Amino acid sequence: MKLLIADDQASLHTFLDKMVDWLSLGITEIRHAYDSKETLLIIEQFMPDLLILDVQMPFMNGLEMLKQLKQPFRKPKTVILSAYDEFEFAREALHLSVAQYLLKPVDVALLTSAIRELLASIQDEQQAALAHELGRIVQSLSCPAESFEVIGRSFQALQIREYMLLDVDGGQPSAESLIEWISGLEDAIIPVVHRKSPDGYACLLGMTAPVPAMRLEELYRQLSDQWIERFADSQASIGISAVADTPDRLLELYRQSEEAGLQRFYSQEAVNLYKEGYFTTDWRTRELQKYERALPEQVSYGFQSASVSKLVSGLFDHFREKRLHPENVYMLILHYVYITGQALNDSVAGKTEWAGITLDMLKAYRTADRLEHYLQALLHRIADKSETAPLAGETVLQVKHFVDLHYGEDLSLQRIATLFNMDKFQLSRAFKQELHINYWTYVMQARMSKAAEMLVNTEMKNSAIAAATGFGDESHFSRSFKKHFDLSPKQYRQAKTGAEGGS
């Protein structure tokens, strides 16, 4: 804290410097002024936290000088010293928000007590200001210049030399108990807490003295051990940033603390220290794309429990091996849920299970193990229902979906009936009864629809499209296409795109 002593008597300055142990009170910088003009100048430049001010000084009295301060936020906490016990002076001092009014000769004990009270008040105000700015930065994810100024002033007033950010997720403690708990870990730590959500806090840990690396490691262990002891049965977690010594890195450290908190997804540890490059964001890989097809295929094959377990385990093994960022994992799982739900859209066996699943619901499972267990359980419930569902109607829907996905393969009635464990005549009748269209007519419609899409959206040749849509040769494809659309493939492409389609 910074102190300015303003009195026209040099003897008072000497007396106070000799009789008061300023450093033990937390006063680290002291300036002296001997008239009102000098006092105003030093206040503007030095910006003291505390001011000991004599009422009677040259040029103007102390109370008139206080009225001259241009920026109210720079007005220090003030103790008035006066040789006159006058009611009017005291009343005006109160009107100017003077904190204490003491009579000369100075009683050192009274002055020391007043300084302690003011320092505690300043600390509370500066912590509140710091918490407010922390909240602004966390909510806006930006750090404007005026915030730097306020944070720097608070750091200086609170004597914060270094700091780190904690992301506390889980909502178990109250803000007050969190402050009390962190304060008890280390005397040199000043905790500042902002509640960013109903179940989450951003905490700034200001350190009034540099903390050696070994002590920091010990502090991390204390945080982890005590957190686990307090919240052993919850999913609450702490992410810890690196340490910085300038306010301009606050937003960077907040992002680090959030990332560190997410590391629990794979580490299973309740308290995690930020590690650069811990996650990968490369999630558009061939390895992941195969699951996008495999899950709907499971619907088509009838959801066998063993196959479901193997598929989901393989998916999460891939997540763990690559350490895919949890945000991407949640989005992928929701996508897989969505496309599997589409495959089950008309299915009594699974329709209600998928309805209403949201990203926030998935994020409630804060670790890969918990999320995998949830997905396994969900899919197994579908599998169990699928195994006991009415055979014909369910199987026809599965066959239809299989055709939609595998239009380029052998879709002969015999092969599909064998695949779905049905008699081919029974399947043919059931398909017609359920969908009001013959099985092979539907196959041709699916193939023609896909072929038309390829003609319009790609530059593939007719021979390649024929192969991709299950036709044995190009001439067979062209005859079938002409019969279906009353246009040749080339004519269709020209009509839809204006291009000179090739054969």
Model description:
By secondary structure, the chain is α/β, with parallel strands linked by helices. It has four domains: 2-106, Response regulator (Rossmann fold, 3-Layer(aba) Sandwich); 158-273, Alpha-Beta Plaits (2-Layer Sandwich); 286-389; 397-497, Arc Repressor Mutant, subunit A, CATH 1.10.10. Helices cover 58% and strands 11% of the residues. It is built from 24 helices and ten strands. The protein has helices at residues 10-19, 22-25, 36-46, 62-67, 87-95, 108-140, 145-158, 175-183, 213-230, 250-262, 264-267, 286-301, 305-322, 326-343, 351-354, 359-363, 368-388, 391-405, 413-419, 424-435, 439-457, 462-468, 474-485, 489-497; strands spanning 2-6, 29-33, 50-54, 77-82, 100-103, 162-169, 189-197, 200-207, 237-240, 271-273. A five-stranded parallel sheet has the order 2-1-3-4-5, with helices on both faces. Strands 7-8-6-9-10 form a five-stranded mixed sheet, sandwiched between helices. α5 links the parallel β4 and β5 (100-103). α12 packs parallel to α14 (326-343). It starts with a strand and ends in a 6-residue tail after the last helix. Residues 2-119 form the Response regulatory domain. Residues 397-495 form the HTH araC/xylS-type domain. This is Response regulator. InterPro entries: CheY-like_superfamily, Homeodomain-like_sf, HptR, HTH_AraC, Sig_transdc_resp-reg_receiver, Tscrpt_reg_AraC-type_HTH. It is found in: Cytoplasm.
